[in-house]
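Researcher: Sequence recovery benchmark, item below. Answer with residues only.
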């Protein structure tokens, strides 16, 4: 059994901004992220406009430049051409042909059908026309099927645009998140540098042990490493977003960081995935495309059943030809008397020939010449009209087999449509669950951060007074950093899940 394909939106919902680690020890970029589903590449990429990119501007540029959208558009144009051709197939057909041949040696004259032994040139001209009068409604059903396929292709374009928009939104939020991580880590480095300076003064004053200074310097080195790692993350996500936009270079590419509200500033997310699903079913292009392909497969069944019916067609043709071996006679203007017998007279003894007197016939003289091209074409002109009726009786059960195949194709299309709906329902349910969990996690992480901030301030005072060793102080500091990272991660995860739900409900992607 074939494993069902994971929905694209579900992949985004489960591996979006949450895939970016926000702890103090950030993993390398290559270990955290994957490349876009369909990284675009163009032979003539658009030049990067000046100024920072908003999310809407980035989506617009991606839709204009991305090759997967262009490919979907070309597929729809191909379906449109197929539809146009099926409509034109209702018109009569007309064809003309001409040929010229040379015959050597013994051959049959193509016009006189006589054997001859000479070199002749022959020309044949014909024009035919035909009209399909009835073919089991196959032409009409083919037109309807191709029209449904064309409409499904238009829905595929819209789906491709939606996929690109969601990809851009995901990468945009990841880049915003990475930049915030850089700022947070730089603040930690600044705090660690101040702590090292204070520890050095305390060490000179004899208030703390040298191990405290070594612990502070080790913490500073770790924080500086995290800054470099976070900056690498920014470069990676900037490159990923620029590739989605199909820009020729990342140089000068910047985004406009939006002002995003905290999740606890919004009302708790109401859990109504069924209502969102009902809204999405009526507007998602992949659902419409799946339903259209079910109707198309039903038309394919009607086309296959059309092979059971007789076929009636009408045809007409006109033809003529020329042969260099054909000859004609032409009067010369002269005549001759050809003797035909004696003149008789009646006598008592019976009929007697008159001496010296003969009877004759006046016969005109002819000149034998090859018949001209134009006169042969005119004289050899022939016409034909015919009706053709074909009644299927037994053709190796081909018609029945084709019908059975088309019925199975209908069932497959229905299963694919049902699978598409199932994937959509599961994606919405998962997005709701993740959004609610992220909102709750943000509130918990915020309270944890507030508590750990108070504990860190207390630990800092004790450390500066020599009442706490460096190891315990760094643990308190890293606990605070970890809580802050968890809070930021939950914030952006909630924002992304909420935007996915807004998308399912028909609202535009915006920050």
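Model:
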């Amino acid at each position: 059994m074939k494993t069902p394909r994971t929905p694209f939106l579900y992949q985004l919902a489960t591996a979006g901004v949450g895939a970016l680690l926000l702890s103090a020890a950030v993993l390398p970029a290559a270990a955290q992220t994957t490349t876009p589903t369909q990284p675009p590449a163009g032979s003539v990429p658009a030049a990067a406009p000046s100024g920072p990119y908003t999310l809407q501007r980035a989506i617009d540029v991606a839709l204009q430049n991305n090759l997967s959208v262009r490919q979907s558009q070309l597929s729809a144009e191909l379906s449109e051409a197929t539809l146009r051709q099926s409509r034109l197939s209702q018109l009569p057909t007309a064809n003309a042909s001409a040929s010229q041949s040379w015959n050597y040696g013994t051959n049959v004259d193509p016009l006189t059908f006589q054997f001859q032994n000479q070199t002749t040139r022959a020309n044949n001209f014909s024009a035919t026309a035909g009209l399909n009068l009835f073919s089991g409604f196959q032409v009409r059903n083919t037109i309807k099927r191709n029209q449904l396929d064309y409409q499904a292709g238009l829905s595929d374009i819209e789906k491709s645009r939606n996929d690109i928009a969601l990809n851009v939104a995901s990468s945009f939020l990841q880049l915003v998140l990475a930049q915030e991580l850089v700022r947070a880590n730089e603040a930690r480095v600044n705090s660690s540098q101040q702590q090292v300076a204070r520890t050095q003064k305390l060490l000179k004053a004899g208030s703390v042990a040298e191990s405290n200074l070594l612990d502070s310097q080790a913490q500073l080195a770790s924080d500086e490493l995290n800054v470099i790692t976070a900056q690498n993350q920014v470069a990676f996500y900037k490159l990923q977003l620029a590739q989605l936009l199909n820009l020729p270079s990342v140089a000068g590419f910047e985004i406009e960081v939006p002002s995003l509200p905290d999740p606890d500033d919004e009302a708790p997310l109401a859990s109504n995935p069924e209502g969102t699903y009902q809204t999405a079913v009526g507007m998602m292009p992949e659902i419409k495309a799946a339903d259209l392909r079910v109707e198309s497969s039903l038309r394919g069944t009607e086309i296959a059943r059309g092979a059971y019916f007789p076929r009636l067609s009408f045809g007409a043709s006109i033809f003529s030809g020329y042969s260099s071996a054909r000859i004609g006679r032409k009067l010369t203007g002269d005549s001759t008397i050809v003797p035909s017998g004696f003149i008789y007279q009646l006598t008592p003894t019976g009929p007697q020939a008159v001496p010296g007197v003969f009877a004759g016939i006046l016969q005109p003289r002819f000149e034998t010449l090859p018949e001209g091209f134009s006169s042969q074409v005119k004289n050899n002109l022939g016409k034909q009209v015919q009706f053709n009726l074909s009644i299927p009786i037994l053709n190796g059960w081909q018609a029945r087999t084709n019908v059975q195949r088309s019925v199975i194709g209908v069932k497959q299309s229905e299963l694919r449509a049902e699978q598409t709906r199932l994937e959509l329902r599961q994606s919405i349910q998962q997005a709701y669950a993740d959004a609610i969990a992220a909102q709750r996690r943000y509130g918990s992480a915020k309270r944890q951060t507030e508590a750990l901030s108070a504990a860190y301030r207390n630990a800092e005072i004790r450390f500066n007074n020599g009442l706490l060793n460096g190891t315990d102080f760094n643990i308190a500091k890293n606990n605070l950093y970890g809580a802050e990272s968890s809070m930021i991660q939950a914030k952006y995860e909630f924002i992304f899940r909420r935007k996915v739900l807004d998308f399912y409900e028909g609202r535009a992607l915006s920050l």
